[in-house]
Amino acid sequence: MANETLLDVRGLSMRFGGVTAIDDLSLTACAREITSIIGPNGAGKTTLFNCLTGFYRPSSGTVTLHHPVRGALRLDRLPSHELARSAQVLRTFQNIRLFAGMTVLENLVVAQHHALQAASAFSIAGLLGLPRYRLAQARAVDAARGLLRRFDLERVADTPAGALAYGVQRRVEIARAMAAGPRLLCLDEPAAGLNPKESAALNELLASLIAVEGIAVLLVEHDMSVVMKVSRQVVVLNHGRKIAQGTPAQVQSDPQVIAAYLGEPDEPVQALSAAECAT
Q: Which domains does the chain have, with CATH numbers?
């Protein structure tokens, strides 16, 4: 159900030697909602994603996913390969990481490798072409074709992913993450490099994923036209610390957020008098 906490981050810190990239950060993200993480360059957004998705082991703090089937899972303690399989936490990256030489359909089938691996009995059933593996493979292809329709990618199903236009590759990357069946989908700069029309289409796609698929989305994004239109909650980071959290309207008018993006003047700026304007 909506408004139920899915992700609970408490006192998270990430240090690299003497550099603190994330400093005592706490936040929550709810099921069936989009929570955006914003902040100036170097604020710690991607480092946070890396901690949540197993690329980094946090220096301190806890990251708990309240899985509707498996209960409370401590993501900071799970092996990295278990985050996708057991916790169903999936992500995309700032730089597109599709298998460029594979077709779009193949990319979506490969994303279901956990189910295919289980059915293959560590490749033995696959090599022998046993019925259970053929059935699992057929199901994976059917699921991939369903995502092709859902993401309007049927016309490029047999096209190598690396030959696609940049905006289409972004859509394929999100579809590939969805093929793995996420409960929490972490999107790192999905609107990067998109034109206004493509950004508007991304807004519709994200809203649809929440409404139809029922997943939660954690979004790192610089494009405020995307963030402000699709987010239920916005968390603002600066120098690794949370400086604001609230609705898009609340964070837009927050003085600390404005200062973080625009900088604070050394001296207060005073309004010019009519006489000064005339000189």
A: 1-88+182-267 (3.40.50.300), 97-180 (no CATH)
